[in-house]
Amino acid sequence: MKLLIMLIFYFILMLSTLITLSSHSWMIIWMMLEINLMSFIPIIMLSKMINNHTFLFKYFIVQTISSSSFLITITLMWINDYSLNIFNTNFMEIMLSLSMILKMGLYPFHLWYIEIMLNLPWMMFFLMSTWQKIIPLTIISFFNENTIIYMTIIISSMISSIQGIYQNNLRKIFAFSSINQTSWLTINSNMSIYLMIMYMLMYMMILFSIINMLNVNNFYYINNLYLLNNYHYLMKLFLFLNILSLAGLPPFMGFITKIISIKFLIFNKMYLITSILIISSLMTLFFYLRLTYTSMILIKSKFNPLMMKKYSKDFSYKSYFFNKLNFMMIMITILSYFSLIIMTLFDLY
Amino acid sequence: MMKYILIILLIKLLFLIINKNNMLNILFQNMMIMLLIFFIVNYSYIKLNMMDFYAIYYDFGLDFFSFWMINLSIWIILLMMLASLKVVKYKNFLFLFVVNLMFMLFFLVMSFSVLNLLMFYIMFEASLIPTLFLILGWGYQIERIEAGMYMMLYTLVFSLPFLLMMFYMYHMSYSLDIEYLNIKKLNFDSFLYNFVMMIFFVKIPMFSLHGWLPKAHVEAPVSGSMILAGVMLKLGGYGIYRLMFISENLMSNYMMSILVFSLVGSIYLSLVCLRQVDMKSLVAYSSVVHMGLVIGGLFSLEIIGVQGAFLMMISHGLCSSGLFCLVNMFYERSLSRSLIINKGMLSYCSPMMMMWFLLCMGNMSAPPSLNLISEIFLLMSLLSLTKFLVIILMLFLFFSSCYSLYLYSYVCYGKSLFLYSFTSFSVREFFLILMHLIPLNLMILKIDIFY
């Protein structure tokens, strides 16, 4: 029964995003925003991992504030259409972009985002940092570039990369890295929505393979990552390849995203914002590298099944390495190695 | 060119299938020897000027520079496997080690032979990651984490602005083909040109950007410091050679400042070498000193300077990686890299001290070595630029021979601490050093194959 309920809500969550991507009307977009919220909250509620639900109220309040201000702006635009231009359209765009920034948790409104991300289980974390951002990003792609968005992109990328440096909590690190990636995504969706979709696809692929690993093992702090020494060493290797890929280092798939967006930005002569984004991604590299050090140092340690049983949810060593999800992760890693080389060989960038 | 890259990829797959630990290193070495022989025989007709490309296939091509650099990198990687017996003997993640070396070779061959600038950049940065993995995975102390962080961040701070500049160049000329960019001559100001050059200055490394190099060398295992000194530094020089001429209009202002700065920095660093106690960091600083001369030769903008820099890179690659091997051999016996503990070794084994002597003389560019001819070329090009450089070069040559002599005399002579458990050197170790020494000292008899 519970499975059925979950299935329905996941279905609605997916459907609302897809309808937003293909709709023409502002009202339907607003409705889909609300439906998206109403289906995401039960998904979090029903998962077993959460003890206190108070943070959900915070999430609900923030989301309703942003979508109600979105509704007000839409109705004002509607009035504008029927009468003479009473309100300044520039004002509308600022209102819209502010409400979407609130919804995504970019800089001036980033405090709620980190606080809520700290409480989420890992798979909800993944949904929150990728899937929930598609609707606001599509809405941003519908109107022109304005200074509000530029300023938030610049400041949020800088602040997230600086604040992530001294964190030990894995969820906090990934929350800051998700803010940083969202600023890349926002500038991409400002340029064109197809760019954003490409970026989002690759980002989801890379992030899923990392988050899946953290979810299976219940890792919450950096020092927990040393428990990976009990596995086969190839597991550690795949984790560090994926993290470097998320950081956007050259031979991996994460670099394709960087190439595509930098090329677009340079061709549109946005030199300042590109250089700032590049500097911020350099600073995020610092804490991504901190995550990889645990897995790059090769230690020979005897496998201890009792210890692994203590730390991980449902652990069986034989089926661990070759089960389906890990197979997918390995495939993504291998793909990420060779896709970039093939792409540059045939000038596909 | 493409077939060799495919062969390297296939060898990787072969290792995945075989996965037998006891013969892995021998199989690897045999494969590498086969590859090297095929490569040399196939392209031995190459006898070219600058930027004359042979064997062009898709984005790949060879000229004399890249041909010899690929030979050097295969040779060094072959010797890396020979040098790190400890990994083989104790089965210290041997499979991962071999695969890592294969990936390193793949990235190096690609970056030396590719003609597209974006591809070159990707391979240039990608070769950093196996090196980082080598340092962190098989290194000795816990400070290797700091060394790895230094290496990554030093190179990436300057490489990401280069990425931005590269797309700016693409926007200016709508092509990233290196040869096309060299013919077209883009119109830069010196600020932008600095961004293009800075990534290679970090990699070479130039004086004042060299902070990562001694740290990385000291913490790396012997194979890591061999590849770093042997090939990775040459990647920077190769990049300068490829992209130096993309805007000639500002070279006359730009080159003099860089040239004098790096030469004076080399004098300073050779003075730093003279007061090192750690043998490995002495050799590391000496490689920075030599690379200062390479920058001088490249930026003298003369054909003889470029050829001298090229020869210097090859000879330095052989010489300093041999020195690192020797340092590691003493480290394995006395468990210390300190000059004070390792002094007076002549009484323990004199034949190996002969090897040490020959390598140190190679490092100070004494007659029978390849370093001599390269240094003569570089001095010719630099002195034809201005007479003023005589003073700098005199000091440079004096001090650079001083520290080589200092290293040799400290290790060989003096009163030794009595090391009772000093095993004599095996055939493998003599063979390893001879494989560095023979090309270094006998290539001078047929010097015209290099250009």
UniProtKB/TrEMBL annotation, chain A:
GO biological process, one term: mitochondrial electron transport, NADH to ubiquinone
InterPro entries in UniProt: Complex_I_Subunit_2 (IPR050175), NADH_UbQ_OxRdtase_chain2 (IPR003917), ND/Mrp_TM (IPR001750)
EC class name: translocase
E.C. numbers: 7.1.1.2
Highest taxon, organism lineage: Eukaryota
Compartments in which it is found: Mitochondrion inner membrane
Reaction catalysis annotation: a ubiquinone + NADH + 5 H(+)(in) = a ubiquinol + NAD(+) + 4 H(+)(out)
Topology of the protein relative to the lipid bilayer: Multi-pass membrane protein
GO cellular component, one term: mitochondrial inner membrane
Keyword rRNA-binding set for record: no
Transmembrane segments: 27-47, 59-79, 91-113, 148-166, 193-211, 231-249, 270-289, 325-346
UniProt-recorded Gene Ontology molecular function terms: NADH dehydrogenase (ubiquinone) activity
Keywords annotated in UniProt: Electron transport, Membrane, Mitochondrion, Mitochondrion inner membrane, NAD, Respiratory chain, Translocase, Transmembrane, Transmembrane helix, Transport, Ubiquinone
Sequence ranges assigned to domain NADH:quinone oxidoreductase/Mrp antiporter transmembrane in this UniProt record: 23-284
Function of the protein: Core subunit of the mitochondrial membrane respiratory chain NADH dehydrogenase (Complex I) that is believed to belong to the minimal assembly required for catalysis. Complex I functions in the transfer of electrons from NADH to the respiratory chain. The immediate electron acceptor for the enzyme is believed to be ubiquinone.
Family of this protein: Belongs to the complex I subunit 2 family.
PANTHER family recorded: NADH-UBIQUINONE OXIDOREDUCTASE CHAIN 2 (PTHR46552:SF1)
Designated name of the protein: NADH-ubiquinone oxidoreductase chain 2
Organism this protein belongs to: Cephus cinctus
Gene (UniProt): ND2
From TrEMBL, chain B:
Domain NADH:quinone oxidoreductase/Mrp antiporter transmembrane per the UniProt entry, residue ranges: 116-396
GO cellular component: mitochondrial membrane
Transmembrane parts of this sequence: 21-45, 65-85, 92-112, 118-140, 152-171, 191-213, 220-241, 253-271, 283-304, 310-331, 343-364, 376-398, 405-424
Main EC class the enzyme belongs to: translocase
Reactions it catalyzes: a ubiquinone + NADH + 5 H(+)(in) = a ubiquinol + NAD(+) + 4 H(+)(out)
Entry EC no(s): 7.1.1.2
Keywords: Electron transport, Membrane, Mitochondrion, NAD, Respiratory chain, Translocase, Transmembrane, Transmembrane helix, Transport, Ubiquinone
Top-level division of the source organism's lineage: Eukaryota
Subcellular location: Mitochondrion membrane
Bilayer disposition of the protein: Multi-pass membrane protein
InterPro entries (UniProt xref): NADH4_N, NADH_UbQ_OxRdtase, ND/Mrp_TM
Principal location listed in the UniProt entry: mitochondrion
GO biological process, one term: electron transport coupled proton transport
Domain named NADH:ubiquinone oxidoreductase chain 4 N-terminal: residues: 1-110
Family as reported in the entry's similarity comment: Belongs to the complex I subunit 4 family.
Function: Core subunit of the mitochondrial membrane respiratory chain NADH dehydrogenase (Complex I) which catalyzes electron transfer from NADH through the respiratory chain, using ubiquinone as an electron acceptor. Essential for the catalytic activity and assembly of complex I. Core subunit of the mitochondrial membrane respiratory chain NADH dehydrogenase (Complex I) that is believed to belong to the minimal assembly required for catalysis. Complex I functions in the transfer of electrons from NADH to the respiratory chain. The immediate electron acceptor for the enzyme is believed to be ubiquinone.
Protein name: NADH-ubiquinone oxidoreductase chain 4
Species whose genome carries this gene: Cephus cinctus (Wheat stem sawfly)
